[in-house]
Amino acid sequence: MNFKLTLFIAIALLVVSCSKDTETVYQEADLKAQINVSEKEQAPRAIYDTSERGIYHGVIASGYNQTRGKVWVNVGNNTRYTALIEMVNGDVFHFELDSNDITLEERPTTFNFKTNEGGFILDVSNPRKPIITEASLYNEEYLANVLKSTSLQRAAVMTGVFSEIGNPLFSGTWNILSNGETDPSGYGGQAITMCMVTWNGRSLEDTTFETYTSPFLCLNSEVIPAVGTFGLNGIMCDDQVSVMGMSTVNWSLSFDTLVYTNYTDCLPRTSGLFTLDNGQGITRAGIIAIDLI
């Protein structure tokens, strides 16, 4: 009996050891495959899904004009600490920290990406709510938000602009971020997590989104706002109400393969639309246009 028990334990330990060895081999192969892959193309590693490490993706935008772009940050996902910014105007910025200066035993959660062209500080002490501060490019201040990508949910971003009809001086950027929750309404894409509007030096954010019903002739279903719908560079986000600062903003922003469309009435539009009430007798109406890149 003792011999059988000892043999059983030995076999069990061998199986566990082999499983760990196999897992280690897979992890090392995954790591080697991504060493020279850009932040934009890297696959988030599953072992970092709940940790500070991994890939973060979001928006960087001016608070005073319509300059905007996308940012990717690699926090040790492939042992390196790098960042990439791609602006809509074509400007590209690369950042890299010296990994030798990062002591993993101390588990740093704040990373300062800087070059002569600019940079930012990323705080991932709470990976579910990463914070970017002190963002700048060419000595101008910028505003930024990022979300964490995981092996199962890749963060997605759409940038854009807004302006008041008849008053182009009231304008800024209008951006949409998703944490990657897939196919929320059955039309593909990823659920929208944040609307980020930059104006007058501020970033105004909304993280609560209203569902709405599309009539029979259009979609015949309840719609959960999403980006990347129908497998394309589209968006479905109508009948939204956002409180931004002291103002209440009603807005709709949906786009399919060819045109802007409001899915509440299934009629085409020339752009997304918003109305703003500042609660002090001033109202504004304007357009929202997304970047199809």
TrEMBL record:
Name by which UniProt lists this protein: Lipoprotein
Species of provenance: Ulvibacter litoralis
